[in-house]
Amino acid sequence: MVELGLAASMQISQPLIDEIAAHAREDLPNECCGMVGGSGEEARTVYRAENAEASPLRYSIDAKEQFRLMRAIEDAGEELVGIYHSHTKSAAYPSQTDVNLAGWPDAVYLIVSLAEPDAPDLKGFWIKDGKIAEAELVVE
Question: What is the mean pLDDT of the chain?
Fold first, then answer.
């Protein structure tokens, strides 16, 4: 992690993880996406977004919705600490498309895999300058 110059971990509660997994299931067969607000290394709030791609293979957040979500995060006294999306059939690891489109180097990219629908797998990653490093998720 040190090579990317970012904190190594994110504190996240089990209810937030459950909320992200629920969003992923609800949006099947498409990928879900959203943002996570918090402070420092602590995730506090999930902000759901609509996948503008409406695709099982990729996601994007419409610019107007992204602006609205950023305002909601700021209005709550939080900062953007994470961006999440689901992988409907593949592992919780950034795809090359995820890496190419990663535009927030200071946010943890959370990916929930539904490859096993009854056992969602959430992992976090730092993506900076095309490099990937796993972020430790400290579940509270």
Answer: 93
The string of pLDDT tens digits covering residues 85-134 is 999 999 999 999 999 999 999 999 999 999 998 899 999 999 999 999 99
Longest dimension (CA), the chain: 36
Rounded to the nearest 5°, which phi and psi values hold at 26? -65, -35
Q: Measure the CA–CA gap between 26 and 42, rounded to whole angstroms.
A: 25
Decide: 134 and 9 in contact? Cβ < 8 Å: no
Strand partners, 126: 133
For residues 34 and 23, give the distance between their C-alpha atoms in angstroms, rounded to a whole number. Answer: 9
Give the Cβ contact number of residue 45 at 10 Å. 15
Dig out the tokens for 4 from the structure.
Answer: 């990317």
Alpha-carbon distance of 119 to 94, in angstroms, equals: 19
Contact at 8 Å (CB) between 80 and 36?
A: yes
Angle (CA) 125-128-134 rounded to 5° is 20
